[in-house]
Amino acid sequence: MMKLYGLPGACSMAPHIILEELGLDYELVLCDRDKLNTPEHLAVNPMAQVPSLATDDGLMTESVAILLYLDEKYGDGRVAPPPGSWERGQMMMRMMFIASQEHPAFGLWLRPFRWLDDGDEQGRLKAAAEERFAICFRRLEGWLEGRDWLIGDHMTLADTLAFVHARWGLRVDPPTTEYPNIWRFAQNMAEVPSVARVMEQEGIALNATP
Ligand SMILES: N[C@@H](CCC(=O)N[C@@H](CS)C(=O)NCC(=O)O)C(=O)O
Prior knowledge:
- This protein is of the alpha+beta class.
- The chain has helices spanning 13-21, 39-42, 63-75, 86-110, 119-143, 157-168, 180-191, 193-202; strands at 2-6, 26-30, 52-55, 58-61.
- The chain folds into 2 domains: 2-75, Glutaredoxin, CATH 3.40.30.10; 86-192, Glutathione S-transferase Yfyf (Class Pi), Chain A, domain 2, CATH 1.20.1050.
- 52% of the residues lie in helices and 9% in strands.
- The chain has a 4-stranded mixed beta sheet with strand order 2-1-3-4, covered by helices on one side.
- β3 (52-55) and β4 (58-61) form a beta hairpin.
- The longest helix is centred in the middle third of the chain and has 25 residues, at 86-110.
- Glutathione is lined by residues 7, 10-11, 36, 49-51, 62-63, 99.
- Glutathione binds at residues 7, 10-11, 36, 49-51, 62-63, 99.
């Protein structure tokens, strides 16, 4: 049986949603945030992070890779457009944007102390990262104009990552609630049965914590 290592509301929630949406057999391991840097967890994720997916073939890290693996192996067209289609390329673009531009901006805002020792410098980095996150959210807001989903007419891989970040965005300034399209999207996502089950399993709601 596959095993997903995650933290409540973290980017691991994206593959968690897809495991649940596809009705797959899996075990959720909610990790201890304070024990990510222990030899036991480093054996599962050498970057001291989540997510990791343990499969019969081995261990996989990186949320986007896990999402694509799950889709290609089990998705059968249910959570992503077909390989080679323009729509899949567009979905990939949005996913990569969220994972490689938006996510680091949030990480720098959340933990500037991991990069700089000086308190004033940390404050400046935090402010710059918050502005960068807002630039990313303005792009996401545009993509969701007049749409319920980032691509097509149902939830795809990209929506799961966008939803995770929409929750995170409630903690920054301006918060997600000030982006009408992202906030509408987040509220719709929270109503999707698989997403609601995932939030219940992770013990979270559509609010700013944790
Ligand atoms: N590029 C990685 C990023 C993983 C990552 O940043 N995970 C965060 C949660 S969203 C984490 O484990 N944070 C805990 C920490 O850094 O202490 C991926 O997409 O899987």
